């Protein structure tokens, strides 16, 4: 390099280029290098915005759903949240296949446009006279369909990076995705100040309040993302050594570089998909249950739940940044597989701490005693439980644990210290496992085009986000937190066992065939 200033300008995000390497001066021009990394960084942003589109309303969906449609219950909440991932599961395979034969700009722009339209639809779900909850379901499914472009993003980055760059690049994608999931509620929290009523734009019948403002922001970010992709993104491809594939022709599908031959370890691929499924499953249900759990256990109102949980998840976002930095450092010291195992153990500890204990019970919503849905409990149990959980008459509206949930009468409260400790542990384990799963997966696949495989990985994550909310909403509403979190602890134990069984097979493609040393 001519000077340190030029070298600093060319240095990729988070150390994607090996310092001091002279090979790059021979095999790639400076112009191609800059264009390639501009395109990759635009896709980092795309991944972040896509994740924000999911999580920016996650803590306000429940109160908003209750407001627009009184017939919606906790079980339907699970389906609303899961619809996002159902749409993403279907779209990831379609967009992934599309990107293998056409320029990646096409599926990216189309998918983001769908998300923009869907966010606008979400802002209007209060208008219909009936069946509002189903309109919300459709809106979230379309947002998820647009988010199916994550398979395109990962496929592009895998093909546009050398083997040395790929681990850091996949880690950066995972970091952007995880930060989007965690920091999305921060934006939601900022809009709490608008309130439930907000303001109304009569000309277009648009209500701008604490529930609709976040999705309108998401739509605005989507428009900005489309502009950046259209003007900056270029098609790039390099081989494992970083040699430039100059002529990308989607009709002829020819390149100038011969890719190494070898069979991908399908057992390792399937195992990594399962591991990734569990990691996404765990965080999806944690985001889903956080609002109903805190409202039931601590008697928080809807606005309090949105505000306090937004602050908690914002704190986890700061924690995640430290975790990402630590993972990139520790993975070089003790290895990615060992860190993945440690992350799963931390997640297990987080859910184990959430198991309720003691003699203190949550407050009960007394008004519901007049309904005909009294659970099958004795009169003495009801009296004792309500005597131990007097209602706070100073809180407006019904708060506390609904009496329709029979477990509220005999399940001890989860103390706030338990909940916060659990959140901290899950906030450590989730981002670490998320990054490491993608990093290992990309290495296992090797230099071959990864569009189809990345589509399957995205589909497995989407499946987790479908089943996670449905699982936790059903188990929690019918059996309570004791059964819900006990089952989760068992699932994590089985996952740790699986990781131990395939531990030696989770190695890079080039390491497996002896081309480089581990």
Write down the CATH topology.
Answer: Growth Hormone, Chain: A
Distance between the termini: 29 Å
Helix coverage percent of residues?
55-70%
| The named CATH superfamily | MFS general substrate transporter like domains
Q: Compute the number of strand runs.
A: 2
Shape: globular
How many helical elements? 18
Structural class: mainly alpha
Q: Name the CATH architecture.
A: Up-down Bundle
Task: Give a brief rundown of this model.
With 518 residues, the protein is mostly helical.
Would you give an account of this structure?
The protein has 518 residues and is mainly alpha-helical. It has a single domain (29-356, 414-512), classed as MFS general substrate transporter like domains (Growth Hormone, Chain: A), CATH 1.20.1250. It has 18 helices and two strands. It has helices at 4-10, 23-27, 30-55, 61-68, 74-101, 105-122, 132-146, 150-159, 163-190, 213-232, 266-298, 302-334, 336-353, 379-388, 416-445, 451-479, 481-502, 509-512, and strands at residues 199-201, 206-208. A hairpin with a 4-residue loop joins strand 1 and strand 2 (206-208). Helix 6 packs antiparallel against helix 7 (132-146).
Question: How would the blueprint of this fold be written?
Answer:
Layout lengths: L3 H7 L12 H5 L2 H26 L5 H8 L5 H28 L3 H18 L9 H15 L3 H10 L3 H28 L8 E3 L4 E3 L4 H20 L33 H33 L3 H33 L1 H18 L25 H10 L27 H30 L5 H29 L1 H22 L6 H4 L6
Antiparallel strand pairs: 1-2
Helix pairs in contact: 3-8, 3-9, 3-10, 5-6, 5-7, 5-8, 5-16, 6-7, 6-10, 8-16, 9-12, 9-15, 11-12, 11-15, 11-16, 11-17, 12-13, 12-15, 13-15, 13-17, 16-17
């Amino acid at each position: 390099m001519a000077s340190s200033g030029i070298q600093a300008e060319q240095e990729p995000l988070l150390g994607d280029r090996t310092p001091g390497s002279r090979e790059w001066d021979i095999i790639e021009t400076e112009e191609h290098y800059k264009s390639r990394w501009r395109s990759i960084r635009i896709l980092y942003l795309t991944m972040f915005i896509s994740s924000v589109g999911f999580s920016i309303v996650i803590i306000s969906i429940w109160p908003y759903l209750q407001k627009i449609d009184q017939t919606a219950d906790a079980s339907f909440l699970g389906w609303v949240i899961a619809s996002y991932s159902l749409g993403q599961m279907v779209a990831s395979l379609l967009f992934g296949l599309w990107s293998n034969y056409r320029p990646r700009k096409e599926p990216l722009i189309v998918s983001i446009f769908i998300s923009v339209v869907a966010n606008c639809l979400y802002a209007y779900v209060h208008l219909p006279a009936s069946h509002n909850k189903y309109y919300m379901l459709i809106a979230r499914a379309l947002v998820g369909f647009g988010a199916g472009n994550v398979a395109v993003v990962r496929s592009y980055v895998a093909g546009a990076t050398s083997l040395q760059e790929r681990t850091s690049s996949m880690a950066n994608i995972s970091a952007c995705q995880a930060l989007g999931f965690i920091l999305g509620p921060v934006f939601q929290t900022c809009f709490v100040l608008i309130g439930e009523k907000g303001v109304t734009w009569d000309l277009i019948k648009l209500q701008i309040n604490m529930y609709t403002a976040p999705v309108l922001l998401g739509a605005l970010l989507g428009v900005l993302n489309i502009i950046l992709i259209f003007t900056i993104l270029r098609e790039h491809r390099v081989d494992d050594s970083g040699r430039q594939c100059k002529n990308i022709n989607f009709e002829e599908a020819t390149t100038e570089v011969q890719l190494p031959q070898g069979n991908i370890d399908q057992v390792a691929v399937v195992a990594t998909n399962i591991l990734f499924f569990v990691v996404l499953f765990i965080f999806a249900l944690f985001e889903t249950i956080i609002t109903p759990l805190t409202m039931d256990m601590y008697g928080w109102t809807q606005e309090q739940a949105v505000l306090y949980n937004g602050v908690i998840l914002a704190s986890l976002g700061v924690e995640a940044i430290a975790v990402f930095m630590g993972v990139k450092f520790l993975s070089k010291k003790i290895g990615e597989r060992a860190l993945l195992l440690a992350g799963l153990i931390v997640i297990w500890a987080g859910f184990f701490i959430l198991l309720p204990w003691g003699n203190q019970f949550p407050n009960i919503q007394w008004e519901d005693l007049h309904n005909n849905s009294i659970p099958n409990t004795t009169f003495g149990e009801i009296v004792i439980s309500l005597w131990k959980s007097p209602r706070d008459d100073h809180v407006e509206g019904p708060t506390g644990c609904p009496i329709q949930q029979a477990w509220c009468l005999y399940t001890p409260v989860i103390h706030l210290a338990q909940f916060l400790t659990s959140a901290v542990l899950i906030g450590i384990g989730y981002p670490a496992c998320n990054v490491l799963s993608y990093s290992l997966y990309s290495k296992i696949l090797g230099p071959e085009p990864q569009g189809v495989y990345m589509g399957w990985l995205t589909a497995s994550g989407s499946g987790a986000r479908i089943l996670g909310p449905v699982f936790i909403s059903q188990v929690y509403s019918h059996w309570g937190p004791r059964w819900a979190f006990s089952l989760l602890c068992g699932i994590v134990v089985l996952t740790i066992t699986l990781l131990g069984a395939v531990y030696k097979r989770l190695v890079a493609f080039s390491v497996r065939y002896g081309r480089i040393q581990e």
